[in-house]
Hints:
Elements: H1 16-30, E1 37-38, H2 50-62, H3 79-90, E2 102-105, H4 108-114, E3 125-129, H5 133-142, E4 148-149, E5 154-155, E6 158-162, E7 180-184, H6 196-209, E8 212-216, E9 242-247, H7 249-252, E10 260-263, E11 269-270, E12 273-274, H8 275-286, H9 292-300, H10 304-330, E13 335-337, E14 343-347, H11 354-365, E15 367-368, E16 370-371, E17 382-386, H12 391-403
Parallel strand pairs: 1-15, 3-6, 3-7, 7-8, 8-9
Antiparallel strand pairs: 2-10, 4-5, 9-10, 11-12, 13-14, 14-17, 16-17
Helix pairs in contact: 2-9, 3-9, 4-5, 10-12
The structure holds pyridoxal-5'-phosphate.
Pyridoxal-5'-phosphate binds at residues 42, 107-109, 112, 132, 184, 188, 216, 218, 247, 249, 255, 260.
Amino acid sequence: xxxxxKNYLKLQGSYLFSTIAKKVAAYQEANPExxxxxxxxxxxxxxxxxxxxxxxxxxVDEMAHAETFRGYAPDLGYEFLRNAIxxxxxxxxxxxxxxxxxxxxxxAKSDSGNIQEIFGLDNKVAVCDPVYPVYVDTxxxxxxxxxxxxxxxxxxxVIYMPCTEENGFxxxxxxxxxxxxxxxxxxxxSGAAITKxxxxxxxxxxxxxxxxIIYDAAYEAYIREENVPHTIYECEGARTCAIELRxxxxxxxxxxxxxxxxxxxxxxxxxxxxxxxxxARRHGTKFNGAPYIVQKAGEAVYSPExxxxxxxxxxxxxxxxxxxxxxxxxxGYSVSGxxxxxxxxxxxxxxxxxxxxxDYLLEKAHVVGTPGSGFGAHGEGFFRLTAFGTYENTKEAxxxxxxx
Length: 404
Ligand SMILES: Cc1ncc(COP(=O)(O)O)c(C=O)c1O
């Protein structure tokens, strides 16, 4: 008799964004004339930069000729891209990461979901609360957690690290020692950023306790402040305790193109095994390489023209972030994030729950955001707005909210 993976049955409800989509669709149907502005989902709106488009076109043309046609890509990524990443994202920042420690993939969602496979099921996982849901759900699917506790609103046998107004939305070192620690900075959903000294404490803690940090730096391109690290490898000792995940989605608009990478330093060993060799084996067996065309597009991200164009793109989104942050603050809201991240995290007014505020905002301002409670129990009473809309819509949305 066929049985199923019962761990999947522990997962909760429908995915946050499908619930939002259903509510918005119902509202639009009932109010067909209303212009709804979406500042909810974390998808970008600006087109790919010209340097990337040129590189894509050239790569497509190469595919049309026998001499330049490419079939399967190397499992771990083309040298040209891995070299560009190693140089620009690491060596130029003074971090010692080599091209052969970089594994190119189709994005950080897959990598952040798949990385847990190389660890034993008896490992204890620590996550921030609120959190990007993929880290938790993939550990639930694997059977590394207990059941869902409806009273607490989270899973048994997971260490949740509350990120609250009191601690500036930054997790504190947990008392119970975890094996795997997921950290994401700049943070989705709160937009909080960690200083280099703050991150160094985590690296020291992991090296002392033997934990492994899985560091998601998908939003590093939005960092504005000097003392905020762009990579965990800026911290001393990170090579012996940290894996880093990166994405081309938010720094270069690849949400629909798909490209990312994971860094596993060769020194990183646990249980007598190099994690680099396990991830190489996993990647080689289950992944057949990101498309050549897409990797060529990724290479253009590091060209001088690509860098200049993407800087402008990020500035465009960060201007939106400033409009949201300042507009809400002036309207009397308590806001954070938005300085080193494209996310603004606001406290719901008048003790409203996150979903009550969602409905209120949709009804009164016709603006869609994301309820903080969808990211974890400690997200209750908070709300996320994103800077990924157009400038015009963002401005209009904030004007409407200010008038509510
Ligand atoms: C923290 C975080 N990690 C990873 C991802 C997914 O990135 P990708 O598009 O590369 O799969 C997202 C997307 O929203 C994210 O917020």
